[in-house]
Amino acid sequence: MIAGLAHIEQCWLVLDAHGVIRHRNPPASLLLGGDLLPGQPLPAMQPCALPRELCGLLELQQLQLGELTLGAQLQPAQGGLQLCRLVDLAPVLQQEHERRQRERYLSVLSELSSLAEKNRIRRLELALQYAAQALELQAGMVARYCGDALEVVAHSAPQDYRHGAMLPLELVYCEHTLRSNSLQAVHDILDSVLADSACYRQTGIRSYIGMPLEVDGQRFGTLAFWGQTPHAPFTEADAQFVRHLARWVAVGLERKLAADELSLSYRILEEQLDWLRLAGQVARLGHWSYAPQTGWVTLSAEACALLALPRQHLPLSEVERRMVVEDRQHWRKAFAACLYESGELQQEVRLRQQDERVSWLALRAQLVERSEGPLLFGVLMDVTEAKEAQQLILYQASHDGLTGCVNRVLLFDRLEQEIRRSERLQQQFSLLFIDLDRFKQVNDHHGHDAGDKVLMAIANRLQRMLRATDTVARVGGDEFVLLLPGLAPGRDLALLQQQVLAQIERPVRDGRHQYRVSASIGVASFPQDGGDAGALLKFADSRMYQDKRPARH
What we know:
Elements: H1 2-5, E1 11-15, E2 21-24, H2 26-32, E3 46-47, H3 52-58, E4 61-65, E5 68-74, E6 82-88, H4 90-113, H5 120-135, E7 139-145, E8 149-155, E9 166-168, H6 174-180, E10 184-186, H7 198-203, E11 207-215, E12 218-227, H8 236-257, H9 261-283, E13 286-291, E14 296-299, H10 301-307, E15 313-315, H11 316-320, H12 325-342, E16 344-352, E17 358-368, E18 375-382, H13 384-398, H14 408-425, E19 429-437, H15 439-446, H16 448-465, E20 471-474, E21 479-484, H17 491-505, E22 508-510, E23 513-515, E24 518-526, H18 533-547
Antiparallel strand pairs: 1-2, 1-6, 3-4, 4-5, 5-6, 7-8, 7-12, 8-9, 10-11, 11-12, 13-14, 13-18, 14-15, 16-17, 17-18, 19-21, 19-24, 20-21, 22-23
């Protein structure tokens, strides 16, 4: 076995039954140098950092030796010895890193293609912002060449920049980009000839990547990104991304400067569709188009998967049938406005899946005029996780974290809505302002955990006894407000007030303990006690203090 390994180009180790290295062939000795010598045990290995499907196929584990990253493939033991093949993973890991970079950059490019911002300068600045984040740099700029200076056209710089500002060439690294007329990338200025430049002395910028811009075949200026700290060495994926972005920026500048935007828009459409096809393949971002003259939709493969549709070319009505019924009317209204008014579409709809789950889909599109007729084209993406996160944030911002009741912010909003509704229908409504009495004694004698249980129990009782249209809000430590639409002063309101008091005065049991509180209640009715939310709450609060007796608190 050992003799046969001497003439094999791959790196092999021979291990004994205890995992101790007994031999290594010449390629392994050349690779390892003074590491993993015969007689040393094979170190503990880690899961491989490569994609799971590749590691699983090759049964690779990862071995870290200083700066050397190796993949280890153990063979079945034979005669008390076991072969271990070593693979230098550095090139593969670098390729995997660049692949992930390309995926991220394709996603950014596809997002830029669907930007709905009409102001072209603002559109450029959004693109610079997204691209700088993707490159892990701090800022970006598009500048026009003006002899011995650059004029800032658009930027995402945090400070010291403004539109139209003139930057002397000697104070920007873009001078070297313009002089070479090619992409320039420096991951650490201090390791380059630019370390002694006036730009570094003036700005302290440590990393830079820039690309010349040509507009209508003429030199226009530069696209540049920079950071105040050193960057990891720029990769070919970084360079390709900046080159693609420079083309996109140049097209945007051409649109801004060109007199005939109609013919130019078709070129942009073709380029954006190419990007969308790439993004659909790599980042599972679907694209679609709609021809008004036929009423048919064309979907990419990823769009078909997201919509769970079997065909790529089908009538619009089949796509609409996948939407939740309640969303179809809003979708059709936005779709018609895009076709006949604005030319742009931004809509989010819900889809009902086969397992009855509901997912969210965001659709963005733009109408482009062509000689053969208009075409609506755009992208669609699954935004379910983002919508669920938004809903959680909105709930947390508008509800009390302990009791789940509406908080003061949402209460004021609902009060204002109820005032407008009651004015329109010439109706009355009432609210009860409740302050718990003897609650402080529970906190002082039994602790805040007991107080929290009392608050949760009372909130639950109030929510269960009221109508679905009523609102229970917690507006203070031991204060609640009940909003009662359509309930005017009278016998029903007085009866409800007694029922609320009875629910509150019921003891709250907690194991062997039980806690008792009471309440003071103030009543206000619209419109006689106030014409806005603040006035109504103030009136009910004053009534509550009139009702409060010293013995209660």
